[in-house]
Amino acid sequence: MPRAAARDAADRVWTMRFPPRPWPLPKARLVATDIEFTRGDGPEVRGPVAALLLLLTGRPEAAREWAERTGEAWTGVTTPA
């Protein structure tokens, strides 16, 4: 997945208000490790932007697996907060 596209998609999901999400946004500060992207406040969640996108779209386990597959450390959550 191209990093810039993943960043744009993550930004869009972060700002979406409609339709209402069936999952909550993480109460965390999301920091991409492979492109400039930082959103939110709270405990820091670091990982590749594609993993952050997966987390934002309600797939925390897939986010962890993606980060591990890329060889980057995942400090993320395994369930939405």
TrEMBL record:
This is Uncharacterized protein. It comes from the Bacteria. It comes from Streptomyces swartbergensis.
